[in-house]
């Protein structure tokens, strides 16, 4: 090998090594340190309200659960997507099968950063891109309430995800593109409550915003509807230019979120039924705040 060839080969090796190091750094899970989150102090009563807004039972309770059984968050519900089949995990307080062995900082890192206590990325079927906008004090309240719920020993069902999506480290790059705690829409101060409920704990955008080919939310079409991320049918456009609820007044939207009745006395259906079961428990003030926000977001029509 000539001197020139040797130098060229060393250059290629150096570039490959630098690329590998950069990739490793960019894909590393980001978390907050333990000392930055109080070990205790959440208010379970306030946490129950956050629990309701988040609709945790919709994904983590057993299919068909009723009454008190809906508070057993043993998981197991499946979500069929273009990237594989994901199964909601056990998030009951059981210390082995659930999340009862977690610290408060583990809970905050899971919700805001999508990172597990053993420092692995969670798949974004868990909507942490929305929860990243939540206030840490609200998460601590939620954590206090969830620890008061019944424990379940039911084991988690492993996700059915093929290569390359089975390589969780790669989700670090995905997060560089799509995990941002900043608000989606700029609003006046009187609309901030509604924005917080919709963009954060309510995670409405996870279903009502179309996604890119790699599964991230297309924020340029925020709440404009699109294909169902679970693979069945389509999701309505919630913007003032959509044909679904554009003609509804703020009062119409608030009433729908309370009773499930539309202005023409039709009733809620599909997966929205479970959402309304949760929003029906909110205060009238919070439902009106959601309605005001939805009437104020940028109007987006059908794709051209």
Please describe what this structure looks like.
There is one protein chain. With 304 residues, this protein is mainly α. 38% of the residues lie in helices and 4% in strands. The strands form two sheets. It has a two-stranded antiparallel ribbon. The longest helix has 24 residues. It starts with a helix and ends in an 8-residue tail after the last helix. The mean pLDDT is 91.
What labels describe this entry?
two-stranded antiparallel ribbon; mainly alpha; 304 residues
The order of strands across the largest sheet is 1-2
Approximate strand percentage? under 5%
How far is the first residue's CA from the last residue's CA? 58 Å
Describe the main β-sheet briefly. Answer: 2 strands, antiparallel
Instruction: Categorize the overall geometry.
Output: globular
- The low-pLDDT segments are none
Rg calculated over all Cα atoms:
21 Å
Average pLDDT metric: 91
**Element-by-element helix/strand order:** HHHEEHHHHHHEEHHH
| Count of DSSP strands | 4
How much helicity do the residues have? 25-40%
- The number of helices is 12
Structural class: mainly alpha
């Amino acid at each position: 090998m000539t001197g020139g060839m040797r130098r060229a080969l060393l250059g290629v090796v150096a570039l490959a090594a630098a690329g590998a190091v950069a990739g490793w750094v960019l894909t590393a899970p980001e978390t907050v340190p333990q000392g930055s989150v109080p070990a205790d102090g959440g208010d379970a009563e306030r946490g129950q309200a956050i629990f309701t807004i988040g609709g945790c039972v919709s994904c983590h309770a057993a299919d068909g659960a009723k009454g008190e059984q809906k508070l057993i968050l043993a998981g197991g519900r499946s979500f069929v997507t273009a990237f594989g089949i994901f199964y909601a995990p056990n998030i009951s307080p059981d210390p082995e099968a659930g999340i009862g062995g977690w610290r408060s900082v583990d809970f905050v890192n899971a919700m805001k950063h999508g990172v597990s206590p053993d420092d692995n990325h969670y798949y974004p079927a868990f909507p942490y891109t929305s929860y990243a906008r939540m206030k840490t004090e609200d998460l601590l309240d939620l954590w206090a309430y969830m620890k008061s719920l019944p424990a379940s020993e039911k084991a988690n069902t492993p996700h059915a995800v093929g290569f390359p999506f089975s390589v969780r480290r790669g989700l670090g790059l995905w997060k560089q593109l799509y995990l941002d705690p900043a608000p989606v829409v700029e609003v006046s101060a009187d609309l901030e409550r509604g924005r917080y409920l919709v963009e954060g704990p309510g995670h409405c955008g996870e279903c009502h915003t179309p996604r890119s080919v790699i599964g991230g939310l297309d924020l340029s079409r925020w709440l404009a509807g699109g294909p169902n991320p679970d693979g069945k049918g389509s999701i309505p456009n919630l913007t003032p230019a959509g044909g679904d609820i554009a003609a509804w007044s703020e009062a119409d939207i608030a009433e729908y979120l309370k009773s499930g009745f539309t202005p023409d006395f039709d009733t809620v259906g599909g997966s929205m039924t479970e959402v309304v079961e949760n929003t029906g428990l909110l205060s009238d003030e919070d439902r009106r705040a959601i309605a005001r926000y939805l009437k104020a977001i940028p109007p987006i029509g059908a794709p051209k």
